[in-house]
């Protein structure tokens, strides 16, 4: 795994077929740990996304927050359990991050919001009951249309980021932990740029210690 690499590495990916279950080995996460240790590099990984419709309950309730603690259903996606990586979840988009709808619809209700966990994010714990994700950043939320309707994504509740899908397009609006993770990677890169002699462990520690704690 030896590679000359000084900049923090962003991994906005996850295997939706493999939500983490306690005590199950994850070879990819172990390989990332070994890579980060050997190369002394900061790796930042997205926690993984849940499909909005996974939050529809039998009685039509849309209280998704309790489902984020359901390890079997909403666990991290491999390789987000990497012990040496910073794992990032998503918060609702800050006001003004998404696109404005051409017209407002009275039956479109936002689910989640600024400072709240996004209904799209997955959560830990990680291996050996590690706190995962350690950090969260704005990644967008969702809306529902009408009573009993399923959740869906909407441009007005997404965030602006790089477009990695369509050739020739630079920017895209979307939602999920893949949009939140680069914000943390950028913060780590700024710490390292200001202090090039720091180890990866020190950069991770400084990023974590500078995070704001939401107490609401």
Automatic annotation (TrEMBL):
Coiled-coil ranges per UniProt: none
The entry's keywords: Hydrolase, Protease, Serine protease
Keyword Hydrolase: yes
Keyword rRNA processing tagged: no
Annotated SUPFAM superfamilies: Subtilisin-like
Gene3D superfamilies the record matches: Peptidase S8/S53 domain
Any one GO MF annotation of this record: serine-type endopeptidase activity
Database matches in InterPro entries: Peptidase_S8/S53_dom, Peptidase_S8/S53_dom_sf, Peptidase_S8_subtilisin-like
Pfam families: Peptidase_S8 (PF00082)
GO biological process, alphabetically ordered: proteolysis
Domain Peptidase S8/S53: 9-211
Family label: Belongs to the peptidase S8 family.
Record protein name field: Peptidase S8/S53 domain-containing protein
Origin species: Actinotalea ferrariae CF5-4
Highest classification ranks of the organism: Bacteria, Bacillati, Actinomycetota, Actinomycetes, Micrococcales
């Amino acid at each position: 795994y030896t590679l000359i690499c000084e900049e923090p590495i962003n991994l906005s990916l996850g295997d939706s077929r493999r939500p983490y279950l306690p005590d199950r080995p994850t070879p990819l996460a172990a390989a990332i740990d070994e890579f980060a240790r050997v190369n002394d590099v900061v790796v930042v990984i997205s926690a993984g996304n849940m499909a909005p419709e996974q939050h529809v309950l039998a009685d039509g309730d849309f209280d998704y927050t309790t489902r984020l603690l359901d390890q079997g259903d909403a666990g991290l996606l491999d390789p987000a359990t990497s012990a040496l990586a910073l794992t990032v979840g998503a918060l609702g988009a800050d006001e003004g991050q998404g696109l404005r709808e051409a017209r407002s619809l009275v039956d479109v209700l936002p689910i989640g919001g600024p400072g709240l966990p996004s209904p799209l994010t997955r959560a830990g714990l990680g291996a050996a009951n590690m706190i995962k994700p350690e950090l969260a950043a704005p990644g967008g939320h969702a809306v529902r249309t009408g009573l009993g309707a399923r959740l869906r994504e909407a441009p007005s509740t997404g965030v602006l980021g790089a477009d990695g899908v369509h050739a020739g397009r630079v920017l895209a609006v979307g939602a999920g932990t893949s949009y939140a993770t680069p914000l943390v990677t950028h913060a780590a890169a700024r710490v390292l740029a200001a202090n090039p002699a720091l180890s990866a462990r020190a950069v991770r520690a400084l990023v974590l210690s500078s995070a704001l704690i939401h107490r609401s």
